[in-house]
Amino acid sequence: MPTPTSPVAPPGGSGPGSRRAGFRPDIEGLRAVAVLGVLAFHAAVPGLTGGFVGVDVFFVISGYLITGLLLREAVTTGRIRLGEFFSRRARRLLPSAAVVLGAVALAGAWLTVPLRRTELEYDVVAAALSTANWRFVQQQTDYLAAGHDQSPLLHFWSLAVEEQFYLLWAPLIAGFVYAAARAARRGRAVRSVVTAFTAVLALGAFVLSLRWTGDSVSLAYLGTPSRVWQFGVGALLSLLPWHLLRGPRPLRLLSGWAGAGALVWCMAEYDTSTPYPGYAALVPTLATAAIILAGIPDRSADGSADGPDGPDAHGVGRLLAGRAPRAIGRLSYTLYLWHWPVLVLAEARLGPLDWTAKTALTVAAVLPALATMRWVEQPVRHSRTVSELPRRGLSVGVSAVAIPVVLALVMGTTTLRLLGPATPVDVKGLPPGAAEGPHLLSREGTPLRSGPVMPSPVQARKDFPPDGTCEVAPPVTSSPRCLFGAADSPDRMVLLGDSHAGQWFSPMLALAAERGWALQELVKQGCPLPELSVVNTQLGRTYHECDTWRADALARITKGPKPRLVVIASLNRYTDDQRLLARGWERTLKPLRALGVPIVYLEDTPVPGKDIPACVSGHTADPEACAFARSTAQWPDPLARRIAAGRLPGVRAVSVNPVLCPPEGADCPAVLDRILLYRDDAHLTDVAAVVLTPRLERLLSETGALAGGTGAAAGAGGWTRVMHDDFEGPAGARPSADRWKYDIGTCYPGCPAPRWGTGEIETMTDSADNVRLDGKGALEIVPTRRDGKWYSGRIESRRADFAPPPGGVMRIEASIALPDVTGPAAAGYWPAFWTLGAKLRDGYTGWPSVGELDIMESVNGRDTFFGSMHCGIAEGGPCEEPVGLTSGPQPCPGRRAGFHSYAVEVDLTPGAEEVRWYLDGRIHHRVGAARMDAGTWDRAVHHGLFLILNVAMGGKLPAADGLTAGPGTEPGHPMRVEHVTVSTREGTTRS
């Protein structure tokens, strides 16, 4: 399938010259049609999306002209002088190519960043040695090499195909000529044998092209074997005795015009979604053959020739042989050589361009093309001195190859010295990563020093997870065994997904090894884990192998030994249809959830959308210049939302994105704490993944998924801690951005309930004046007054998926010291610790049916507090709203003198479901499921929850208690929170 990043073939082959025997001016004009289509395609001109079919035109022309030239020599002289043949080819093609390669090598040093420069020099060498097509086949079929900028020499792939054709085809025909040298009728013998061989070869190559088009579009499009049949079609035009055919003249006219019409139709109707070459290439190939065939002179009875120079004034050949088409045809080779580097290098310097700018640049490429033709191509080609002896032409060719190769090697070596060694980073020597907080690396121990990024850009390019062949390629339909770590252990962790799961291999292996578990990796490149049908760009078609692999992977997990933990991850942008994506995830997760084991979804990491190592190599002093927009790097994640809403029990979501793309600012960094985060345009470096290991361990431990790990084991009574924050940190610091987010202003976004729906008078802020760590292991939420207005703090847990396991219990607990203020000075104070149902995160509607659990509320400095449950309808109903099912004032002597434990348990034990409130371990309130109808209860508790800590001022509850904030109310008295913990205990229904 052709793409805008796959330039098509140049007009190589036998070039026009003097009116020698066999010269066809109409073919010279046909080259103009082909090259204009190619240029329009590369310039993205609207309406010419199929201009890439020019490749077929050029290959057919080359097969026709080269075979005809060789055949005429064989028939007239009885031999083929290979030295003379290759000398002509070298004089014709290589000097102009050498000029362009040298210019690109030099311009690349100025216009491209260092890392891209080294890759460009490799491209120069491959292009000079006529192997560019195989270099680009390897790059474009290698999923792990994706995301790099396109090469200014990508168009040399087709010149390489033609050169390889010449190198094989001429000796083959020479061999046939030698074998037939003693035949009585040499010409007929050679023609018959070569024709038969060509027909078989073309048919076989066409079948191979069809197969490769189905298996690997890059190999089919760029590979020489899959293009041979098009040269063969042209060769058959030369080999078969078409000039002896008798037929009505209108039929010849119709053939030519039909071929021209078919070419125009292909250029207008084909596009990058057309499977190519495949069957689609038949149309432009046979259309070109029809045009050439229509112009082949026939012999009348009197021996006169009829052709484009004869009386056929109405044929397409007459139009193609016009002065303008022939002038463009003569320039076509050098114009093709120049236009693509001009476009790519301009975009490397200026950024993406629209089609009008590209068209203007393409027109501008005419100038260097004319200069090259006038002062390089024609003088060398027609030089009597050079053409006198074949060895001189061959010497010119060798020099034309050697000069750009040497230039590229010199410049490439210089750039490599600048970039430093490409040896892998020793991950054992990396600085320790931070388990939490806004920094990637731990601030404990030796302070960070300035220095180069790790890995360096050249190291980052190859900084893949060390998982060998376990990240299987697109054609593969089943993963190998891929057990790592303690492979014989009965306990195992499964890492499942696409390459965005594979990037977590190193951290997962470390965590599994720490626990004595095995790690099983089931990862496939470019394959969405949600059940979606997608097109694979490497294969150029629907990715059936992905569906087969996914089904096989799920079957292996569900039918094999039950894992301790399944970690899943996937690129989050295979489709922008959120409903389709959600349904795909549900189908994939269904068999996994049936296992009854913890499933953790690692939310997709930011996708930069640009080649980060290349960018950083050009901005070593200011890597901030390589930052990228958060709005395009992070897409909405329907699975994370559903997990947070508690709609997928048994599945937990964790994210490292708060540190990779901090919530402050509009951009995500490419380098953080001197760690180069990305190896391409979408994947983390292995170094970045390794330093994220402590953070991942904490996040996974908080979900309860890493039983047996540090801080994750079930405690007394079978409780497993799934979230804990002890608010350690320097005085004045913010609480952990990984765990908490701020509510600010006077209502939720969109203001569905002004003044937070309770009549409060404060404005919530994210200022350290209102929310801060005290430096002694506690969080302070402090109401302040400025210019007669009240300000305070309100934070929510980032997670909204806190829920009991099926049939189990969840406990939410905080150690709190209430504001040390009482009497008139405390009027209007309203500290609270409470929860809301996760669905409110999707738009803040549906209260109170979605459920609210007030774990602790206290007003006006009283030595009492409340516990309440809100549910049902807004007025009355089974939950007696708006008051709710409340404990009423509970005595709490000494609440200001020290910390007390306030907790709630949501117990889903079958037949005994209830919610219980605790003060310092003593139950003081409970609400059972029998208190209301089943539907109300289900909507109130059977889902995920998020936590809230705040100190409000004024509002309905303080007013109902008889006081409200006034001039006598003293600001500055904090609610202090020593820790918050969420724990779960499995129920009896666990499988």
From TrEMBL:
Bias-annotated ranges (Pro residues): 1-10
Transmembrane segments: 51-72, 93-113, 164-181, 193-213, 228-245, 396-419
InterPro entries assigned to the protein according to its UniProt record, in alphabetical order: Acyl_transf_3_dom, Acyltransferase_3, Beta-glucanase-like, ConA-like_dom_sf, SGNH
Cleaved signal peptide residues: none
Keyword flag Transmembrane: yes
Residues in GH16 domain copies: 725-991
PANTHER family: ACETYLTRANSFERASE, ACYL_TRANSF_3 DOMAIN-CONTAINING PROTEIN
Protein name listed in UniProt: Acyltransferase family protein
Species this chain originates from: Streptomyces sanglieri
